[in-house]
Design a protein that fits this description.
Strand content of chain A: 15-25%
Strand order of the largest sheet of chain A: 3-8-9-2-10-1-11-12-13
Largest sheet of chain B: 9 strands, mixed
Oligomer: heterodimer
Number of strands of chain B: 11
CATH class of the largest domain in chain A: Alpha Beta
Largest interface: A-B, 58 and 63 residues
Distance between the termini of chain A: 9 Å
Shape of chain A: elongated
Number of strands of chain A: 13
Number of domains of chain A: 2
Largest sheet of chain A: 9 strands, mixed
Distance between the termini of chain B: 14 Å
Strand order of the largest sheet of chain B: 3-6-7-2-8-1-9-10-11
CATH superfamily of the largest domain in chain B: P-loop containing nucleotide triphosphate hydrolases
CATH architecture of the largest domain in chain B: 3-Layer(aba) Sandwich
CATH superfamily of the largest domain in chain A: P-loop containing nucleotide triphosphate hydrolases
Order of helices and strands of chain A: EHEHEEHEEHEEEHEHEHEHEHHH
Helix content of chain A: 25-40%
Shape of chain B: elongated
């Protein structure tokens, strides 16, 4: 079983556009959306939901006001400023339970909290595992790990040996949770100073996790000089450079209609994405 | 007034708006709270006067005092400690710094040590106070860095805070620290979907929100219809134009490349202020 992760560093560079097209091009695969606080892959794949499970990613401290003596020990011990005068701020509470052990009156218990939802959906390209972190909830990294485990189990059950995972922007806990143990990562970036700067940081992270990484510059013709700088930087940090993707206005049209570009037309972007997929499909790390 | 610029979806133009807005408001401070991928500095080349390291506590075990009872590992909700026979393994990148292991150890063998997560840099750009956070690659959470950045704001001056994408912890910390938020979106199904998540978050945190449509064009109704239903105003549209994308790719602030946006953004600021005071 192999898993390909698509990430970007900077947001909005075209991860989901590329992964949605890969979904249409790959033969047998399970799809996973590891961007749980701005999930978009399902919007391209018109899924039919098969299952919706509540997800409990953290516990919450609950104070029994009758037993509480308002001694303030919990407030003193809480590193997250989440408890004051016997009241818990659920947004700040990380569920660590430290308050419950320092409380001399034993007034604090830990209770599971629903922090998100996990979905299994059927699409015309196969099963999609996706999730949604509830507004204001904690622990996005854990929900990402949960999505990946569920996708892996589903792929095993179905005898499918490829998972295509759509990642999130940045370099923080959801990205770390999506990178750890993945077989290969494809970074989609753009030829702007922000794209360049953020690529540097995300490649450092991938190197830290020893994940084989390749880079493709999207909309390269917006600024060919920066596109070349990006490829030089990638090579210097040990990443392969793959086919560039052109700026193509029909991508915007296809996205507005929620259709992967390779299904929409046979234009410049479609041709390049097909070439990119052929390179990815024959990538040593994924065979 | 402090305004957070957020979006849900990444790459919709948060930084473009935040930089131009701060430059358009006299004395406004600019805070780059996207400590995972800070980008405002690329448009401003700020001078940094001060670098403040940000730490979190991680456990440190005195092996002479430790009896390897395993209580710390059993207690830790984040699996950041493991006790095997005569060894204690600590996984700092899993640690949330709660200190529970320190309290739970019956031998008082667990102490605290500081671990550097990144830094907050303070400086100046084009006459505006500038604050940015930087998370060390490999570190999972920028929340403490964002907290420190907001704590360093001059409370007497207006502030524009550029949030990270998404709706998770660091975004919550940013939006909760502001008087209002401006949500920058694009008129696509992706933009709309993530804008809804960001509007839900603002609602949850009780922070008033207004919307800016970037790359505006024939599909704007997607966003406008949703905003009408929710009663959230759309204050500005920035058209989808190649010249704007090119200015961005040369790292020129929108308000300098196209000065008419200075006046437009001042009006946005005024409208948000009225919204906050109403």
């Amino acid at each position: 079983m192999k898993e390909l992760l698509v990430i970007s560093g900077k947001g909005g560079t075209g991860k989901t556009t590329v992964l949605g097209s890969f979904a249409a091009l790959a033969n047998s695969k399970v799809l996973a959306d590891a961007d749980v606080d701005a999930p978009n892959l399902h919007l391209l794949l018109s899924p039919r939901q098969l299952e919706d499970r509540p997800y409990s990613g953290a516990e919450l401290a609950v104070v029994d006001r009758d037993t509480c003596t308002e001694c303030g020990r919990c407030t003193e011990a809480c590193e997250f400023l989440a408890i004051q005068d016997g009241l818990v701020d659920p947004r700040r509470c990380e569920g660590c339970a430290t308050c419950s052990i320092v409380c001399p009156a034993e007034a604090i218990t830990m209770q599971p909290q629903i922090t998100g939802r996990l979905y299994f959906s059927d699409t015309r390209f196969g099963l999609l595992v996706h999730a949604r972190l509830l507004a204001g909830a904690e622990a996005s990294g854990r929900l990402v790990s949960h999505v990946r485990e569920a996708a892996r189990t589903a792929a095993e059950d179905r005898g499918v040996d490829l998972i295509l995972t759509d990642g999130s922007p940045g370099i923080g806990c959801p990205v770390i949770a999506s990178l750890s143990g993945v077989d290969a990562a494809l970074v989609i970036t753009e030829p702007t100073p922000s794209g360049l700067h953020d690529l540097d940081r995300v490649l450092q992270l991938a190197a830290h996790f020893r994940v084989p990484t390749a880079v493709s510059v999207n909309k390269w013709d917006i600024n060919p000089d920066v596109a070349s700088d990006i490829e030089r930087l990638a090579a210097g940090l040990g990443a392969s450079t793959l086919t560039r993707l052109p700026f193509d206005e029909t991508v915007v049209e296809a996205t507005a209609e929620a259709v992967p570009i390779v299904e929409w037309n046979d234009g410049e972007a479609t041709k390049a994405i097909r070439a990119l997929w052929n390179e990815v499909a024959s990538w040593g790390a994924l065979i | 007034m402090k305004i957070a610029v957020a979006s849900g979806k990444g790459g919709t133009g948060k930084t473009t708006v935040a930089v131009a807005l701060a430059l358009s408001i006299p004395d406004a401070q600019l805070v780059d709270a996207d400590a995972e991928e800070p980008n405002c500095h690329l448009f401003l080349s700020p001078t940094i006067h001060e670098t403040i390291p940000v730490y979190m506590m991680v456990p440190e075990v005195d092996l002479d005092a430790c009896t390897f009872c395993g209580k710390c590992a059993e207690f830790c909700r984040f699996n950041a400690l493991a006790v095997i026979k005569d060894k204690v393994l600590i996984f700092p990148e899993l640690c949330h710094g709660c200190g529970g292991c320190v309290y739970v150890c019956p031998e008082k063998a667990v102490g605290r040590r500081d671990r550097r997560l990144g830094e907050v840099e303070i400086g100046e750009a084009r006459g505006h106070r500038f604050i940015q956070g930087r998370l060390k690659p490999g570190e999972p959470s920028a929340v403490r860095i964002v907290h420190e950045e907001i704590a360093r704001l001059d409370p007497g001056a207006p502030a524009v805070i550029d949030a990270p994408p998404g709706t998770a912890c660091a975004v919550q910390e940013t939006v909760a620290g502001a008087d209002a938020c401006l949500l920058v979106t694009e008129p696509t199904p992706f933009g709309l979907h993530d804008l809804c998540m960001a509007m839900d978050l603002a609602d949850e945190l009780d922070v008033p929100a207004a919307v800016i449509i970037n790359r505006s064009g024939p599909t704007d109704a997607l966003i406008e219809d949703e905003c009408r239903v929710r009663g959230i105003p759309v204050l500005l549209k920035i058209p989808f134009e190649r010249r704007i994308a090119e200015a961005y790719s040369r790292a020129e602030p929108l308000s300098e490349a196209f000065p008419e946006y200075s006046e437009k953004l001042r009006q946005v600021w005024q409208q948000v202020r009225e919204e906050v005071h109403s």
